[in-house]
Design brief:
Strand content: 15-25%
Number of strands: 10
Shape: globular
Distance between the termini: 71 Å
Structural class: alpha/beta
Bound molecules: ligand C2E, magnesium ion
Radius of gyration: 21 Å
Number of helices: 11
Helix content: 40-55%
Length: 285
């Protein structure tokens, strides 16, 4: 009997793996056509400075894929597949260009003087011409480096640390901001904060979720903010969903918030209207 169960489980496991593999193959196949087919778009999620002024600090660009064959596919699913298949190189370049063009347009119209924050995958950073590409993209868009922030995650430090550090330092010297995303999850090491030219620490949503109910999570968040400040960094809280969370974070000295409480990620066509109504609500208050 034991043997049978064991064998049965093995078969089920194999079927699961086969199914996942099939799904990946299908997604990859359709993803290959996504740029040319104009199936990709960016959504922009506002980030607000806390404190008296409460200005909009900028926006994070978040990739969306509406596939004619598969419908909307979550970035959590397709970005991993894009990374494994190296499709993330052209896709990441498309994201950067689109985000810079959009922000340059907004700055020119006088709608914002803030930053656009763009997520990077490790394989993009490892491209030999990565830094040149970024600077060239900025130039072509007419966007100043001080309007761009690049978001990296701790997964980036799994290898080639020195190479990545020197590229980031080079970009940082031009005025581009560097954010460490999802901080506190994964293979965090506090030494990265010292060794890398980081300007922003983004506290992962999983910590913010614990506010206000979990006292220990709230106090851990407060410690992360203090460490960030000791390192001279600006600290952003991700995934802020309630007024209570906003207030606790403000009291704790957090610099910026991002999350549904402020706004969901917005399609390009809604950003200007959101900015205008945000400014108006501040005047009314
Ligand atoms: P991330 O960079 O940590 O982005 C934040 C994610 O949290 C986004 O999910 C956003 O929609 C979501 N979010 C923001 N505020 C809230 C909130 O209050 N509540 C909840 N429940 N969620 C919130 P999204 O857009 O699905 O993106 C998931 C991840 O995919 C991103 O996490 C990022 O790691 C990756 N990603 C997205 N766009 C790109 C891209 O252009 N390039 C790369 N390499 N990765 C990207
Ligand atoms: Mg991010
Ligand atoms: Mg994040
Ligand atoms: Mg996150």
């Amino acid at each position: 009997r034991a043997k049978e169960t064991g064998k049965g489980k093995y078969v089920v496991y194999e079927e699961d793996m086969q199914r996942e593999f099939d799904e990946r193959v299908v997604i990859e196949k359709h993803l290959r056509n996504a740029i040319e087919g104009q199936e990709l778009s960016l959504h922009y999620q506002p980030i607000q400075q806390l404190g008296a002024e409460g200005e909009v600090w900028g926006f994070e660009a978040l990739l969306r894929w509406n596939s004619p064959a598969l419908g909307f596919v979550s970035p959590l699913t397709f970005i991993r597949i894009a990374e494994d298949s190296r499709l993330i190189i052209p896709i990441g370049q498309w994201v950067l260009r689109r985000a810079c063009d959009f922000m340059a347009g907004m700055v020119k119209k006088g709608l914002t003087d803030g930053r656009i924050s763009v997520n990077l995958s490790v394989s993009q950073l490892l491209q030999e011409d990565f830094t040149e590409n970024v600077l060239q993209t900025l130039e072509q868009s007419g966007l100043s480096p001080r309007h761009l922030e690049l978001e990296i995650t701790e997964s980036i430090f799994m290898g080639s640390f020195d190479l990545i550090r020197s590229k980031l330092e080079y970009l940082r010297r031009t005025g581009i901001g560097i954010a460490l995303d999802d901080f506190g999850t994964g293979y965090s090491s506090l030494s990265y904060l010292v060794q890398l030219p980081i300007t922003t620490l983004k506290i992962d949503k999983s910590f913010i979720d614990g506010i206000p109910a979990e006292e220990r999570t709230a106090s851990l968040t407060s410690s992360i903010i203090a460490i960030g400040h000791d390192m001279g960094l600006s600290v952003t809280a991700e995934g802020v969903e309630s007024e209570v969370q906003r207030r606790v974070l403000e009291e704790t000295g957090c610099d910026k918030i991002q999350g549904y409480y402020l706004s969901r990620p917005l399609p390009e066509s809604q950003v200007q209207a959101w900015l205008e109504s945000f400014q108006n609500s501040k005047i009314d208050a």
